[in-house]
């Protein structure tokens, strides 16, 4: 079953590569419970089929990084990029994109959270295995308020500008 507007996010864990050690977060990959992270917050989530892939690296992620302040001005607490990659890859991609402070690069290495959303896709023909569909969503206190899922091979509905316009 695919998640839809009005649904609560499923339980799950995501990993994030932490560059600077803080209280409760060690250097390197850290595991986070999605339910804990979204509690009481307004979060923009966008997902890409893979780190370092052309559309994801040149258009999708850069748009959210570029518009991070505009999202925050509309009350968004955090922006997450989710991909079915490991936390080391997501950390390296985030460094390349200069995402620090703008977008949290969240790894769903085994696609468990992506599958729980019902937004997984089989890219085996391209040698990529199970990945995420391309989408964007607004989540408030764990409930999906906006959801934009792309058709396969498209990049029209899940961009930062579309979601920003939906926030008014």
From TrEMBL:
The active site is at 56 (cysteine sulfenic acid (-soh) intermediate). Keywords: Antioxidant, Oxidoreductase, Peroxidase, Redox-active center. Residues 3-168 form the Thioredoxin domain. SUPFAM superfamilies: Thioredoxin-like. It is an enzyme of class 1 (oxidoreductase). One of its GO terms (cellular component) is cytoplasm. The keyword Oxidoreductase applies. It comes from the Bacteria. InterPro entries: PRX5-like, Redoxin, Thioredoxin-like_sf, Thioredoxin_domain. Its EC number is 1.11.1.27. GO terms for biological process: cell redox homeostasis; cellular response to oxidative stress; hydrogen peroxide catabolic process. It catalyses: a hydroperoxide + 2 glutathione = an alcohol + glutathione disulfide + H2O. It holds the Pfam family Redoxin. The keyword Oxidoreductase applies. GO terms for molecular function: thioredoxin peroxidase activity. Belongs to the peroxiredoxin family. Prx5 subfamily. Thiol-specific peroxidase that catalyzes the reduction of hydrogen peroxide and organic hydroperoxides to water and alcohols, respectively. Plays a role in cell protection against oxidative stress by detoxifying peroxides. This is Glutathione-dependent peroxiredoxin.
